[in-house]
Amino acid sequence: EKGGFASFMDKEIHDQPQAVADTLLGRFDLEGRLTLDDMRIDESLLKSIDKIVVIACGTAAYAGQVARYAIEHWCRIPTEVELAHEFRYRDPVVNEKTLIVAISQSGETMDTLMAVRHAREQGAKVIAICNTYGSSIPRESDAVLYTHAGPEIAVASTKAFLSQIVACYLLGLYLAQLRGNKYRDEIETVIRELQEIPAKIQRLLDEDKQQVVDLAAKYKDTQSVLFLGRHVGYPVAMEGALKLKELAYIHAEGFAAGELKHGPIALIDEGQMVFIIVPSKNGRDSLHAKVVSNIQEVRARGANTIVIAEEGDEEVRQYASEVIFVPQTATLLAPLLATVPLQVFAMELATDKGLDVDQPRNLAKSVTVE
Ligand code: M6R
Asked: Which end of the chain has fewer CB atoms surrounding its CB within 10 Å, N or C?
């Protein structure tokens, strides 16, 4: 049932083109209007919400962070992302005008379920983004947008993460259409670009995997790895670090690259391994330039800089110990590609250390206690 792969995780990483394609399938009608499954919230109500709060835990919360950049940009609705267990116990301000988006692969995460219940008690409507039909969180929500990733067996989340991000984009695009399409042209481009993502992930797996396998072998004995990103690259950095902790039991931390000077740069020493996720140059020159200068800052202090950049971004080569190129796409969609080498890196490094990548120590696939 591993389909010839060495582990479920390996299989699930390779399932990602399909998982993304299936999550996109059948969502657009002939006029290009989005349709969501199980939408039991009145559209007039969705037009009047004044705040979105995304609640989730772990990897699902990083998908939520990506969602925030997209939803705020396309819909101009203030959007917060919060860990479900923090949200639940801090007396949050939510009401009938708040839309809660609860993201959960399993649909059984108790922290997220409790936060959903709490929000509904305050009158908020809840849309669940979930991978498991009929599980508790969708059952207790007002609407559901299913990710069609198929069963995810490995404890560490991979294909569910990419599918959650896709579902968040769909929700953002739907709300943007519903509330009057301010960025019509951009949204049309994004919808087109989304359709091209599965083939791009496939190309990445076909062409870049060996480079990442070699990289993992080279750094097998490393004790600590840092990940830097800005904008949507920030949650990608967090996710890269989480995968490495979970699978390889290596101390790993993700930072917003802009925070470097505010403290973390003190960690940089000769030979420190640092992944840097570089945003596309396309239309975001200043963001790109900022990250390039972050690479230089850590490089000057002796770091080994592993740069994830868009194909064609030759400028970064001179500052990088190694560059992993990913296919070009719209800025907001980049996490669907940039995450993949980080998943492969964590899996390969753990495998090189002789660890069980499907069932890491101390972890459960779904956390059903608070
Ligand atoms: O089933 P859920 O999406 O609600 O699970 C949330 C987290 O427990 C989960 O993403 C966890 O962080 C994974 N082990 C990440 O790989």
From this structure: N
